[in-house]
C-alpha cells in the first residue's frame, strides 16, 4: 500500500467516524468524554507510582512510560471521546463536510467532559490515599513545572505531543487486528510519555491531583497550562497530522514528482 493510499484509507475512516460523532446525542458524547478522562487518569496513576517509587535512575520513568499507554488504548478500544485524538475531526472541515464552528463546538464539549473525568479521578486519588509521600511530591513537582513553563515552550511541546499521539492513533486506525492496534498504540504512546511533552487531558489529571494534595497552584496557572496545551494539541493533531494526511490522500500529485520524492 502506498503512502497516499494509506492516507486515503485513514482519511475515509476519520470522515466516516466524524459522521458518527456528529449523530450522537450530547449526553452520549458527554459520557464518552468523561470516560476518556477517566481512562487517561488510570494510565497516569500507574505511571506516577512507578516513576516515584523505583530508585534506579531512569528505570522508574521507563516503566512509567510502559504502563501509561493503557489509558489511550482503552480510549480507542472502548470508543471513548478524547480531545487530542478527536482533533483529527478537522478532516471533515478540510473535506467540506462540516463547518469549522461545529467542530469547535464538538471539541469544546469533549474537552469539558475530559476535564470532568480527570477531576473525578483526582478526587478519588486524593481521598483513597493510594499515593504515598513520594508519589504525591512527584505529581506536585510536575504540576508546578507545568504551570510555570514559558509560553513558547509550552505551545511547541503541546504541538509535538499531539503529533506523536495522533500518529499513534492513525496507526491504530489503519490496523485491522486488535492486537496490532494495541501494539502500535503502546509503542507510540510510550514515546509520548518518554518525550515529556504536554498532553492537555493528562495535564488535567496531574494539575488537579496536585492541587488536591496541597500543591500551591494558582487558578490562573492551571488555566494557562490547559488553555495553551489544548491549542498546541489542536495544532499538532487537527492541523498538522489531519491536514497533511488529507492533502496526501485527496490532492493529485504528478507522478514524476512523486517518483522523484521517493
Structural write-up:
With 262 residues, this protein is mainly alpha-helical. It has one domain: Glycerol uptake facilitator protein (Up-down Bundle), CATH 1.20.1080.10. The protein contains 13 helices and no strands. Helix 2 packs antiparallel against helix 4, helix 3 (59-67) runs antiparallel to helix 10 and helix 9 (151-174) packs across helix 12. The longest helix is centred in the C-terminal third of the chain and has 32 residues, at 219-250. The relative contact order is 0.16. Mean pLDDT is 88; it is low at 252-262.
Q: Going by CATH, what is the homologous superfamily?
A: Glycerol uptake facilitator protein
Low-confidence stretches: 252-262
Question: Rounded to an integer, what's the Rg over CA atoms?
Answer: 19 Å
The name CATH uses for the topology is Glycerol uptake facilitator protein
State the separation between the terminal residues, measured CA to CA. 14 Å
What is the N-to-C succession of helices and strands? HHHHHHHHHHHHH
Query: Which architecture name does CATH use?
Result: Up-down Bundle
- Please count the helical segments: 13
Amino acid at each position: 500500500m502506498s503512502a497516499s493510499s494509506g492516507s486515503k484509507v485513514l482519511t475515509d475512516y476519520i470522515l466516516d467516524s466524524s459522521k458518527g460523532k456528529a449523530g450522537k446525542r450530547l449526553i452520549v458524547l458527554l459520557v464518552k468524554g468523561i470516560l476518556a478522562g477517566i481512562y487517561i487518569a488510570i494510565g497516569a496513576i500507574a505511571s506516577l507510582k512507578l516513576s516515584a517509587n523505583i530508585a534506579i535512575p531512569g528505570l522508574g520513568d521507563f516503566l512509567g512510560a510502559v504502563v501509561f499507554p493503557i489509558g489511550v488504548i482503552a480510549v480507542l478500544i472502548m470508543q471513548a471521546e478524547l480531545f487530542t485524538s478527536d482533533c483529527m475531526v478537522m478532516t471533515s472541515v478540510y473535506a467540506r463536510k462540516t463547518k469549522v464552528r461545529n467542530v469547535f463546538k464538538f471539541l469544546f464539549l469533549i474537552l469539558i467532559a475530559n476535564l470532568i473525568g480527570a477531576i473525578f479521578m483526582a478526587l478519588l486519588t486524593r481521598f483513597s490515599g493510594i499515593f504515598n509521600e513520594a508519589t504525591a511530591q512527584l505529581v506536585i513537582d510536575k504540576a508546578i513545572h507545568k504551570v510555570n513553563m514559558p509560553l513558547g515552550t509550552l505551545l511547541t511541546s503541546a504541538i509535538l505531543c499531539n503529533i506523536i499521539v495522533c500518529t499513534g492513533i492513525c496507526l491504530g486506525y489503519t490496523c485491522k487486528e486488535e492486537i496490532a492496534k494495541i501494539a502500535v498504540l503502546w509503542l507510540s504512546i510510550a514515546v509520548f510519555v518518554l518525550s515529556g511533552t504536554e498532553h492537555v487531558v493528562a495535564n488535567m489529571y496531574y494539575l488537579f491531583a496536585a492541587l488536591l494534595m496541597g500543591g500551591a497552584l494558582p487558578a490562573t496557572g492551571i488555566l494557562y497550562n490547559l488553555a495553551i496545551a489544548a491549542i498546541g494539541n489542536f495544532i499538532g493533531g487537527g492541523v498538522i497530522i489531519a491536514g497533511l494526511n488529507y492533502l496526501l490522500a485527496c490532492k493529485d500529485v504528478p507522478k514524476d514528482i512523486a517518483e522523484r520524492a521517493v
